[in-house]
């Protein structure tokens, strides 16, 4: 079971309102292409069900109009985009060997491309001051008001997630779950098992993550993460119910495989709902009927509800992965693939209505507010971060990177 950038040159407001992701669009970017979107490869190690794979072919400025290049931009090629994702480390990480640390970031540091990246500019809700954690070249960066900071240097980082209080960031490094301070200091490993991208409980006490379970498939666990540097507690099973009380099985990492689409198909990132009562994850009991599915599980009682199913039972082949809740909890978005390219699907939890966001090839959406989101798309042959207005379904390119996770800042 299991399972969660628009080159506009617009003037920036006095407040640092937008994700500051821009960078020169030069040919040298191709050399770094293979590192963006590392998470999908890093999380592939937590699922071994081949039937769940799809056809391999297959959170600020809000623009007043759609990206003018979107209509004539070709669909993301899975084989090309797959180069954004370095293969994860298959073997276990030594218990006493920490990942290389970048240390506290230096304000004003230029971007990895050699020049700082500027704000996107004003727009709807442009008074929402925020910062965004993201991945570029296998490392975690944070950008705020035109200043970009690199937090890790291990080259295998993926799926950064802000703690609710903004003081810590959870992320994957070499397929394992790590936590660091928001300035990049005190990087410590939380789990020694191959894991999918984690998410924080709304109170910031727990991290939920996916890892192999007692049934042979993936399971969803939670682990308490102390605010002070001390050992984390042992993880406990949330889903499936039959694995509750059981320890994590022996770690058996599985090498990443295939194209970008194939890797995202087995990406085990999870997303904890704002109410703290539900967790969305790929897989679940529904995999006993369907080839691939996405589940919303209720923490109290371990009840499961499939919200997207593929293959088997007369359903179209495909997959749904990397879920993300809207801040009000009324929408859930995931990366999907059906009969064509990757796409973003937004699901209304009350009525079950679904709609597509962004353009073909978009993936890995994360909300800042109900009207501002960030996602990973494709531009100039590599992964870019875009800002999206979900209401108007318009997007603006911001700069090179992937797997964005925004958070609003108090003023």
Task: Please provide a written account of the structure.
This protein has 411 residues and is mainly beta. Helix content is 5%, strand content 34%. It contains 4 helices and 24 strands. The protein has helices at 29-32, 38-43, 78-81, 260-265, and strands at 130-136, 139-144, 147-150, 157-162, 168-173, 176-181, 188-189, 199-200, 206-212, 218-224, 236-239, 271-272, 278-282, 292-298, 303-310, 319-325, 331-337, 342-348, 354-357, 363-367, 373-379, 382-389, 394-400, 402-408. A hairpin with a 5-residue loop joins strand 18 and strand 19. The longest helix has 6 residues, at 38-43.
How far is the first residue's CA from the last residue's CA? Answer: 41 Å
Radius of gyration using CA atoms only: 19 Å
> Percent helix among the residues?
under 10%
Count of runs of 4 or more consecutive helical residues: 4
Largest sheet: 4 strands, antiparallel
Write down the overall geometry: globular
The overall pLDDT, averaged over residues, is 76
Ranges where pLDDT stays below 50 over 5 or more residues in a row are 1-126
């Amino acid at each position: 079971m299991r399972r969660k950038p628009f080159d506009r040159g617009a003037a920036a407001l006095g407040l640092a309102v937008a994700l500051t992701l821009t960078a020169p669009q030069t040919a040298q970017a191709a050399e770094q292409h293979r590192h963006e979107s590392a998470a999908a490869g890093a999380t592939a190690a937590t699922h071994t069900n081949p039937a769940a794979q799809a056809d391999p072919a297959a959170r600020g400025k809000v623009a007043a109009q759609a990206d003018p290049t979107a209509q004539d931009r070709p669909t993301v090629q899975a084989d090309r985009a797959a180069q954004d994702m370095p293969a994860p480390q298959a073997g276990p990480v030594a218990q006493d060997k920490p990942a290389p640390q970048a240390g506290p970031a230096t304000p004003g540091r230029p971007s990895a491309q050699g020049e700082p990246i500027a704000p996107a500019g004003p727009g709807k809700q442009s008074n929402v001051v925020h910062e965004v954690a993201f991945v570029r070249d296998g490392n975690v960066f944070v950008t705020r008001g035109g200043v970009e900071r690199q937090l890790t240097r291990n080259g295998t980082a993926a799926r950064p997630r802000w703690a609710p209080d903004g003081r810590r960031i959870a992320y994957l490094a070499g397929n394992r779950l790590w936590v660091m301070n928001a300035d990049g200091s005190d990087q410590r490993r939380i789990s020694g098992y191959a894991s999918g991208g984690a998410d924080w409980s709304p109170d910031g006490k727990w991290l939920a993550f996916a890892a192999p379970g007692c049934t042979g498939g993936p399971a969803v666990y939670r682990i308490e993460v102390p605010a002070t540097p001390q050992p984390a507690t042992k993880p406990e099973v949330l889903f499936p119910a039959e694995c509750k009380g059981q320890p994590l099985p022996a770690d058996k990492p599985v090498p990443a495989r295939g194209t970008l689409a194939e890797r995202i198909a087995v990406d085990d990132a999870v997303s904890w709902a704002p109410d703290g009562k539900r967790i969305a994850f790929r897989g679940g009991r529904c995999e006993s009927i369907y080839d691939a599915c996405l589940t919303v599980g209720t923490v109290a009682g371990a009840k499961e509800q499939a919200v997207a199913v593929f293959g088997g039972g007369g359903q179209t082949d495909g997959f749904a992965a990397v879920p993300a809740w809207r801040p009000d909890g009324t929408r859930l978005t995931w990366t999907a693939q059906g009969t064509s390219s990757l796409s973003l699907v937004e699901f209304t939890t009350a009525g079950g209505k679904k709609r597509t966001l962004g353009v073909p090839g978009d993936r890995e959406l994360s909300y800042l507010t109900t009207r501002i989101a960030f996602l990973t798309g494709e531009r100039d042959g590599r992964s870019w971060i875009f800002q999206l207005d979900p209401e108007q379904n318009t997007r603006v390119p911001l700069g090179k990177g992937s797997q964005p996770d925004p958070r609003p800042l108090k003023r």
